[in-house]
Specification:
single chain, Rossmann fold, four-stranded antiparallel beta sheet, disordered C terminus, binds adenosine-5'-diphosphate, binds magnesium ion
Length: 306
């Protein structure tokens, strides 16, 4: 199977600072590919070079077999780029906004209703874009990017600044796009978003890609232990240490935590002594992967702001 996107040695410099440093990856047709990293990692720069909006200083990009730079108008019709929500035309309703896009692409007007329904905004069709919530505006901007049935959709931090309910609505939209066989490239600094939506994730930091794999495989390779959390008085610390598979025990006012890499054995041993009440299991996450690769939390962004 040929790739939808091939990136090789892609590099961008500003003055003498390399902000994207010779990165390589490919994205398969129909794949949802995530670029996960903190603020300033180089995600937007990477995305915009692939979209043909910024000129690379080195390396090559191929999108659907064509080079996006210099600008290729045939290619532009085959990709969808989410507008910044602030780019809407003021005082138009959601449906009018979409009609400007159907006109622009010369697609039937009826397509506007279709994409509005796809992003869950059918009820807001006649509402002024200025009256939409942040989450609704994000979904409308995705609808605008989908009008012309693009083969590849690019989303740059689509859930930034959204509350949890709006984020989950947005995830449903991305999943519906995926189910149409559209290739999706999404950037995010939320590890749960990458874990939920992406087939594969590139972990990016300071212009470099540190790892690329499925979320499950990234976590598995990390060999992070599982934490079995019990009520603090569930058993003595000494008894906890002797549970099969347990490597260490942490104890505080909130929980007795058994750290294990053989969770199944440990849980079975807990069951055998009748201590499963209130058990919570916490496995490794992409956040743990990021911390292991960089020594920092994904949330630690202040130091990265240029
Ligand atoms: N036009 C520009 N001129 C100078 N520096 C830039 C420009 N655009 C981005 N940068 C710098 O490049 C780095 C990566 O930025 P960006 O791609 O926006 O990261 P991200 O999207 O991961 O937050 C940042 O340090 C940023 O300040
Ligand atoms: Mg960005």
């Amino acid at each position: 199977m040929s790739s939808a996107i091939e990136v090789a040695g892609l590099t961008k410099r500003y003055d003498d600072r390399t902000v994207v440093d010779a990165i390589d990856f490919s994205v398969g047709h129909g794949e949802c590919f995530g670029i996960l990293g903190p603020n300033g990692a180089g995600k937007t720069t990477t995305l915009e070079m692939i979209e043909g909006l910024r000129r690379p200083d080195g390396g090559s990009v191929s999108v659907l077999g064509s080079s996006p730079w210099p600008r290729d108008t045939t290619l532009l019709r085959r990709i969808g780029v989410q507008l910044q929500a602030s780019a809407f035309i003021e005082h138009l309703s959601a449906i009018q906004q979409l009609h400007t896009v159907t006109d622009l692409y010369g697609v039937p007007t009826a397509r506007a209703v279709e994409v509005l329904a796809q992003v869950g905004l059918a009820d807001a069709a006649d509402r002024d874009v200025d009256a939409l919530s942040g989450g609704q505006r994000q979904r409308l901007s995705i609808a605008c990017a989908l009008v012309h049935h693009p083969e590849v959709l690019f989303l740059d931090e689509p859930s930034a600044g959204l509350d949890p309910v709006s984020r989950h609505n947005l995830w449903d939209v991305v999943r519906s796009v995926r189910s149409d066989d559209t290739t999706v490239v999404i950037t995010t600094h939320h590890m749960d978003e990458a874990e939920q939506l992406c087939d594969r994730v590139a972990i990016m930091d300071r212009g470099e890609i540190l790892a690329i794999d499925t979320p499950a495989e990234l976590v598995r390779q990390l060999d992070a232990p599982t934490r079995l959390m019990l009520p603090p008085d569930a058993m003595s610390i000494d008894d906890a240490r002797h549970i099969d598979g347990v490597e260490s025990v942490e104890h505080d006012a909130g929980a007795l935590t058994l750290v294990t890499r053989r969770a199944a054995d440990s849980i079975q041993a807990l069951a055998a002594v009748g201590s499963l009440d209130g058990l919570q299991v916490r496995s490794g996450t992409l956040e743990d992967v990021f911390i292991t690769l960089t020594g920092r939390h994904l949330g630690d962004q202040a130091e990265e702001t240029a």
